[in-house]
Structure formats: structure tokens, C-alpha cells
Amino acid sequence: MDLKLLVKNILKGETKAIARGMSLIENDSEHAPPLLAALHTNTGQAYRLGITGPPGSGKSTLTARLIKLFRETDQKVGVVAVDPTSPFTGGAVLGDRIRMMEFSADSGVFIRSMASRGSLGGLSRKAQDVADVLDSSGKDIIIFETVGVGQTELDIADTADTVVVVLVPESGDAIQTMKAGLMEIADIFVVNKSDREGTDKLKMELEMMLNLRPKDETRWKPPILTTTAHQGIGVEALKEKMDAHREYMEKNGLLELKRKARINSKVRSILQSRLLEDFWTETNKKLFDEKMDLVLNNKLSPYDLVNSLLEKKA
Amino acid sequence: MDLKLLVKNILKGETKAIARGMSLIENDSEHAPPLLAALHTNTGQAYRLGITGPPGSGKSTLTARLIKLFRETDQKVGVVAVDPTSPFTGGAVLGDRIRMMEFSADSGVFIRSMASRGSLGGLSRKAQDVADVLDSSGKDIIIFETVGVGQTELDIADTADTVVVVLVPESGDAIQTMKAGLMEIADIFVVNKSDREGTDKLKMELEMMLNLRPKDETRWKPPILTTTAHQGIGVEALKEKMDAHREYMEKNGLLELKRKARINSKVRSILQSRLLEDFWTETNKKLFDEKMDLVLNNKLSPYDLVNSLLEKKA
Lengths: 314, 314
What we know:
By secondary structure, chain A is an alpha/beta fold.
């Protein structure tokens, strides 16, 4: 594999090269770390948006509408869609193809879906690595689109600079929204499918929730917007609020802080994988299997097993 | 701290000792590993149930009803409720107190809520460690109650022997259910709040989905039940199906397999923490901070930083 050429072509924004780089990451290729190392100096340029909400809230439609708006001002867009669909159902791949079609002729848009369940683990890091490929390829905007209820593997609040939480009138009581932890991560609330009954009630409940927060004039107060994404209604207003939040983040030095935290956790995640890799020598694997039998028969505790493995190593 | 006494009292099933042991785990106390090591030989007795579903589907009410049924046959019950509510809102603690009241006079029931968001990480392992305390304390049934849409931090399918997925008529199209990955983890489906409109439609959709699976007579086919938990309707039928699934698991040696997989991943998780702990010496912390500046300024990649740290160590 010609890594130098691949790096060069990714930096040029070539679609094929970008896709190839992402596949290396997704497949845990040995070429992925050197690739990402080479691309690193060119990252940090793209603005990272998060779009999250329960299944069926219309995130994909909203994302497609936003892409069109960004393209009107010639901004290049990359999408990382984290889909909890299992690989067995093939949902992610299928969804990808359908969504790609609309923008297939536009080299300024790149969409990648990643399946959550059944992944070999480390999805969160992979999604961020994939985003780094997009970042270094010259995309101006990266959109993370992810199903968010409760804590998902990809922590969108840490990953994105601006988080849009999408709800629908049927999302149920705002109390439940708060319970699901969406309340604290939202920079902007969107009530989508707002032509349906219950929109005003949900808006009011969200408003009440937000008013429960301690008063702080300097802090960003998440606006609550309504959209009907499949008709494009309200999407421009949403983009304006996104821009306003970006400005707020930049002015207050928060973008830089987010980037630092992101890189910090990335380094720690790489370190963790490497420590484990280095640990699993053939000797340790063999020892592990032997002692594991004792643990399963309740003769040795998991903690004692680990202790004995680590002593052996020293 | 008198660890021996604590172990003795937990094994006797004393409520105060159980709570104390759990707090050690939740607070990452240095006493937690030796405690769990000492309790290990007494684990593996309890049957582990998972109750999962979207927020607002009535999981807590259903759990309370099931506890009552188990108590009728004098089975001791422990509940680990994994709640994605943030610690800031205090939801978990409050919910705990409210739920505890009903069973507060019954020493055969122990309920513990754990908050997901804002935890210091490792929630999944902590939830399982807390369950091990309950297991060793002589509980016959352990119920994991968790908000499940998409991949949550606690992987209920790996944690529980029988997984009950609770939906409500408003849960939306079954397609969305499948997308959320609930389809593959359910051993039993429950349509709760079945007095509401849409119950039959949801049941039919679930049935259709299940029929899409490859035919396999030997494999468990998840039944679809209806309940109205707040009135107690359908809960006995649910318990019967739970018993049937348990019997199926036992007969086919699947319980033992699940336990093995659980212990295996536990050992690996402990190993990972220990490797990291051992790595973060004062020297490495200092080196990390120094080189991190280079990474933030795009002069060094995260991968190169890790490489240099690991070489330094050797």
C-alpha cells in the first residue's frame, strides 16, 4: 500500500481516497494508525455538528436539508452517521446507499454510515477517526448524525461543537426527555414534524425545563425551534441558530477547549488499545486460558487472576 | 475497615452491609477489588433478568409488579436500575427513594439505582459488580432495569440471562424498533400500557418482524405479550414466559455459556483498568503533559505521542 499517495489524495479531497482511508479505520487495518498520524497536522479546520434524537425523529431528512443549505454557500460537508442497526440487518449499508444517491453527483459531500451493534468495539473512536479523515480532506462542516437516547457509545456532547437535539411531538413528556439526558447536551432543540399535534405542548414543556436551570446570563440558552424537515420548513432558521452558537463558542474560547478535550481523550484511547495489544503475548494468552478455568469454577476470583497475570509479566 | 466482617455480613444478606459494599464499588474504593474477590466464590447462584425499553414505557412499574410476584414464592430479589439521568438533576437518587418505599419493610428486596451520565466511567462493570454483591448476598433473582434504545453503556443482552423488551403502543413503527437494535436482544416482548390505542398494530408489526427471521425450530421464539402494569394485568403471564425462557436456557446449556462470557469480559475489563493504573506513573504523567502541547499545536500526532510514551517506559 502506498501510504504517501493515499495521504496526498485524501488531502486533495479525492472521494475514492477518503473512502479507502475510512475502510482502513473501520477494518482496524495496521495502516490506519500511520495514516491518521500523517493526516493529523491537517485536522482541526472543520466545524463539527451533532444531530441526535430518538429513532424516527427525522434526523436523516433534516441532515439532508442542512447539507443543501451548506452547499449553497459552497461549504464542503462530511457526514458520519452512527446507526445502531445491527450488521445482520444490513441497515447501515442500505441506508447509506439510499442517502448517498441524492448527493452522489456532488463531490463536495461525503456521507459515511457506521453500524454500532456488532462492531468490534471502539466505535466512538472510529467515528472520530473517520471524522478526522473528512476534516483533513478539506470538509468545512462535519455532521455526526446519531440515535441518541440515554448514553450511546458515541458521546455526541464531547464529539460535536454544536449539538442539535431533534424531537417529535410524539416524543412524550418533557420529563422523559430530561431523564434521557438529552436536556443537558442540547445546544439547540428542534421539534421536527411540527405539523403534527402536540408541538406546542412539547415546546412549552421544554421551555419550562430550560427555565429550571440556574440563571446565568453568560451561558448559552438553547433555543427551541420547530421544523417540518420533509418540506424544508424551518431549516434556514435552524442554520442561523447553528451559526449563532458557533459564534458564541468561538468568542468564548470554547471551541479550543472542546478540541483539546477531544484530542486528550483520543490519546488516552489509543494508549489503552496499545497497552492491551502489548500485553497479549502468547505466554499471557496461555496463562489466561489456564487460570480462567479456575475462575469459572469459583476457585479463583477475576481480581486474583489479573493480579497473577500482571505479576508474571513483571 | 473490617473487610472480613463486611464480607460475612453481605453473605448473611444484611441490608446495611450490602449497601456499604455497593458504595465501595460506586466510589471506586481501593477496598472494592478485595471485597469482590472475596465474594466471588459465592456468586453464580442468582438468575439475572433484564428489563429494557424506551423512556416512559413503564419499566419501573412492571419491575415493581414482578418483584411482588417473586416475593409470593419467597424468592429474594435484587434490582439494579441503570438510569441515564444525570447526577446533576438527582433523578437516580430520588427515583431510588420513591421506589424503595414500597418495599422498604421487606428485607428480601434490595433496589439500587445507578446514574449513567456523569459517572466516572466503567458503569457497565460497576453495575455488574453491584449485581455480584446482590448475588453473593443470597438473592435468587437479580433484575437489571435499564433504558434501552440503541447501544447503551450497559449491554443488557450480555448481562442478563433473560431479556424483556418493554414497548408501548406509541413506540412507533416496528421498523424503528428493529433499527434500535431491540429486535435482536429480546427474549420476550411486552407491549405495556396495552389499554391504549395502537396495541394490536404494534403486536402485528412485531410478529411480522419475528417471522422474517430464518426458520429454526430449536431456537427460542420471543413471545409477544401485552400488559397494563399499573393495574397488574398480564404480569403473571409474563412471569410464566420468563420461567419458560429460563427453562429453555438451562436445558440447552446456554446459562453456563452466558456466565462464562460474562466472567471473561469482566476479567478483561479489570485487566484493562489495571494496565492503565500501572502505566500512569508520575514520570509518564509529566511526559504526557509535555508532549500533549505538541499534539495540540499539530506538531505531533496522537499516535506518535503514544509510541514515544511506550518506548520511554520500556
